[in-house]
Amino acid sequence: MLLFVFDRNFAQIGKIGNYSSLQWSEDYRGVGGFELHCPDDPEIVAMLRQGHYLYKSGKRAAMVIRFVCRDSEEMSIVARGFSTLDLLSQRVVFPALSVGNIEQGMYAIVHDNACVGGFRAIESIAVSDTPEGYDAVHETQFLGEELPEALSTLGEAGDLGYYMSFDHKDKRHVFTVYQGLDRTHGQFDNPPVVFAAEYGNLRQVIITDDMSLFKNTAIVGGEIDEENPRVFVVAGAAEGLDRHETFVDASSIRSEDRDEENNKIELTPEEYEERLLAHGHEALGERIHAESFEGKIDVADWGVKYYLGDKVTCISSRYKVRLDVRIMHYQEIIENNKTSISVTLGEPQIIPMRGRGLFGAKVT
Q1: What is the domain-level CATH number for residue 118?
Q2: Could you list the residue range(s) of the whole structural domain that residue 314 is in?
Q3: Mean pLDDT of the region 279-287
Q4: How far from 113 is each of 94, 127, 139, 143, 170, CA to CA, in Å?
Q5: Which residues pair with 195 in a beta bridge?
């Protein structure tokens, strides 16, 4: 598999085909990366430079070189780097940006901090001019975060992914927000993809059910004021044996705030309690009932029947569970002209199987 090398101005400066090892990975939400091992050849040395791009046919993304090591003893070169999404790590969110609609917010983060702004602009970066119109909402504000960090936060909140396509003809890196297709069992919009031992494409299943850190009710204490009683709110409504409490100190959240123009504002009691509740729910989000599913799946149909970001179904009749989960990461490894691919599944939605299962066997 040939690697095409481009300089920072998108001029193709050569090809690399005689490498001994290549690892290439991409994420649904994240920068991915690569590691390349090849001989210490003068032509290759000239191509593998900081900031140059590596591209493979059939890939959406290109990789930017961030590390090069030459070993005269081994007569080898090792190059590492990340997908061109890493270019966004060179910018932080500034000034503050308020977000409502998640997709619009993700495009605004990139456009306002990397595409415009005089000396802050990176001329080669553009945002897609055909947004999908996803309606997911997440009210928040960013200031000072590196762009990939802010994008990851919003992507997780809206179950959205993103990538930077490599348009070497028009000399652009195009940032695009997307959502993988739903290929789970039971839907009819797309051909379903099911992994199960009965199909011979799922093995070594490990299912974990962990409530050791779980909390579902937060008692939140507000600011400490010697002149007024402290405000407490309760986030969560579970009762009895199903109620797991934790205390959250939110004394740093003040009832006096400042707006975007730094004007002093005073929150009403209702507005202040809403902020405390939001802080409590955020804390509970870190104390979850953790269910995990591990297994090795057959990737023979990778890139044909399912892709990065798609949601697929895994079935374990033995443990009487089904999970629908997104493909969050893939890694392609080429060594000695042999290619292997592994994929990583994301946070699962585990569904107990009742009645008759997918394979006709009765489960309870």
Answers
A1: 3.55.50.10
A2: 194-211+290-329+344-363
A3: 93
A4: 7, 12, 19, 11, 21
A5: 314
Distance of CA 264 to the CA centre of its chain: 36
Let me know whether 125 and 112 are in one domain. yes
DSSP-derived pairing of the beta strands 194-196 and 321-335:
unpaired
Question: Which pLDDT does position 345 carry in this prediction?
Answer: 81
Please work out, in degrees rounded to the nearest 5, the angle formed at the alpha carbon of residue 354 by the alpha carbons of 310 and 203.
Answer: 50
Residue carrying the six token digits 């299912």: 207
For 352, other C-beta atoms within 10 Å of its C-beta total 10
pLDDT beyond 90 at 114: yes
Q: What is the mean pLDDT of the chain?
A: 89
Query: Tokens for 269?
Result: 């009691």
Confidence of residue 349 (pLDDT cuts 50, 70, 90): low
What's the pTM value of the predicted model, to 2 decimals? 0.77
**At which residue do the structure tokens 């990778």 appear?**
302
CA distances, 276 to each of 58, 221, 255 (Å) = 48, 8, 10
